[in-house]
Specification:
The protein is α/β, with parallel strands linked by helices. Among the domains are: 4-225, Spore Coat Polysaccharide Biosynthesis Protein SpsA, Chain A (Alpha-Beta Complex), CATH 3.90.550.10; 372-462, UDP N-Acetylglucosamine Acyltransferase, domain 1. 19% of the residues lie in helices and 29% in strands. The longest helix has 21 residues, at 231-251. The termini are far apart. Bound molecules: uridine-diphosphate-N-acetylglucosamine (UD1) and magnesium ion.
Length: 462
């Protein structure tokens, strides 16, 4: 079997989006659009994956940092064929199959890509193009076939005749090529008369009459090939993928009280017997266990939540980990790297950032915990603040097991509160507290007997 390399086209600006952000970085359910394309390609285990970046290439690279990707630059974007030509040098010496995908088709599935590749290999074609029959083909390249059904060429909408515009079979912008034949064909592509761009779909007509020829592979679910070129299409993509994900989750044993108001990204996984109230947004690679309930108005992104947890209304949870049987909210904000261990509780109007809340510990009300490590069975009173920032650097607060922090304490980091200690309410703690000690860090109270009554009577007389 031939080796496989993948090229993802992502250099275009996306003029029709009317945006400062490069099109492939527009978020779809919390992840950049191109991330879904990469995800769909992953199971094919290509030897190499190349991304063609051009418009704001730095931003694209930054967004994809950490992926096993090579970037190829297309500084001036002169069309999809021109984009692919930029990869010629990088692919020098490679003589296998090349899968070419657009970065703007986030609904593509691995299953479809696998089918395309299989057709390509079985037929030993020089090029195999993915197509779909769309009820409304507006904006797409149309697939022109001969009377006997053979693939002739692809014509872009701008250049199509009125008859050709009636064709409903469209080019998905996804192809497999025999790489050497492709680069030979790309050399021959001439700029479009209308846009002056070099069109990759023109390679089909050029390869058609050569030995091996070209094939089309029709995808059964036409929604999969939808490209995003406008904001309206971006909205439509969300509608489709939320609907699809909701149907999958219902089938997997998840209760969605209103599937039409479940904004759940396609990579999200949820265990059975979990219950989602209406208007919950789950983004990115979020994983939720079994028997967990999430109430309305929560937005959870790239986070893990265990089994039998309860997330009350209105919480924002980002890049965090929540253990089994935890309770969060209502109106809690878990910022990146918040870790709640089993049965921990984070209550209303609490913000947690880059901190561990140990097993069974409670931070029930109106508190900020940042850069802290809290042990097990700790109780943090209402209004407590970890003062983690001195204006220059962030510092750590360590609270060991079984500590009781009274309400409205300020813990000025770096500071350590030893196991079993008690912090008196209203204290400002600037020094480490030994284990089992009581720390009082507040002005001593003075009571002046009868002062209030005397004061009142003086004022009334006055
Ligand atoms: C393209 C196809 C069209 C197909 C449709 C499917 C061409 C000429 N047309 O049209 O037949 O029906 O996709 O969605 O290919 N890009 C570059 N460099 C460039 C230009 C584009 O990297 O110079 C990238 C874009 O970032 C994008 C992809 O290629 O990810 C496709 O470009 P786009 O402008 O969206 O093409 P469409 O008009 O959608
Ligand atoms: Mg497009």
């Amino acid at each position: 079997m031939n080796d496989l390399c993948t090229v993802i086209l992502a250099a275009g600006q996306g003029t029709r989006m009317r945006s400062k952000l490069p099109k492939v970085l527009h978020p779809v359910a919390g992840l950049p659009m191109i991330a879904y394309v990469i995800e769909a390609c992953r199971p094919l285990q290509a030897k190499r994956t190349l991304v063609i970046a051009g418009h704001q290439a730095d931003k694209v690279k930054e967004a994809l940092a950490g992926e096993a990707i090579e970037f190829v630059s297309q500084p001036d974007q002169r069309g999809t064929a021109h984009a692919l030509l930029q990869a010629r040098e990088a692919l020098d010496g490679f003589d296998g199959d090349l899968l070419v995908v657009s970065g703007d088709t986030p609904l593509l599935t691995s299953h479809t890509l696998d089918g395309l590749l299989r057709t390509h290999r079985e037929t030993r074609a020089l090029a195999t193009v993915l197509t779909a029959d769309l009820p409304d083909p507006t904006g797409y390249g149309r697939v022109v076939r001969s009377e006997t059904g053979g693939l002739l060429r692809i014509v872009e909408e701008l250049e199509a005749t009125p008859q050709e515009r009636h064709i409903r079979e469209v080019n998905a912008g996804v192809y497999c090529f025999a790489v050497q034949a492709l680069f030979a064909a790309l050399q021959k592509i001439r700029p479009s008369a209308v846009k002056g761009e070099l069109y990759l779909p023109d390679a089909i007509a050029l390869l058609r009459d050569r030995d091996g020829g070209v094939q089309a592979c029709r995808v059964p679910d036409p929604d999969e090939v939808r490209g995003v070129n406008t904001r309206a299409e971006l909205a439509e993509i969300h509608r489709l993928l939320w609907h699809k994900t909701a149907q999958r989750l219902l089938a997997e044993g998840v209760t969605l009280l209103d599937p039409d108001r479940a904004c759940i990204g396609p990579l999200v996984r949820i265990g059975s017997d979990s219950i989602l109230y209406p208007n919950v947004t789950l983004e990115g690679q979020t994983v939720i266990g079994e028997g967990t309930t999430i109430y309305s108005g929560c937005r959870i992104r790239n986070s893990t939540i265990g089994d039998d947890a309860v997330i009350l209304d209105g919480c924002i949870i980002q890049e965090s980990q929540i253990g089994d049987e935890c309770q969060v909210g209502p109106y809690a904000h878990l910022r990146p790297k918040a870790q709640l261990r089993q049965r921990a509780k984070v209550g209303n109007f609490v913000e947690v950032k880059k901190s561990v809340i140990g097993k069974g510990s409670k931070v029930p009300h109106l508190t900020y915990i940042g850069d802290a490590s809290i042990g097990e069975r700790v109780n943090v009173g209402a209004g407590t603040i970890t003062c983690n920032y001195d204006g220059f650097t962030k510092h750590q607060t360590v609270i060991e097991d079984d500590v009781f922090v009274g309400s409205n304490a300020s813990l000025v980091a770096p500071v350590l509160v030893g196991r079993g200690a008690i912090i008196a309410a209203g204290s400002t703690i600037t020094e480490d507290v030994p284990a089992d000690a009581l720390a009082l860090g507040r002005a001593q109270q003075i009571n002046r007997n009868e002062f209030a009554a005397a004061f009142r009577s003086k004022r009334q007389k006055g």
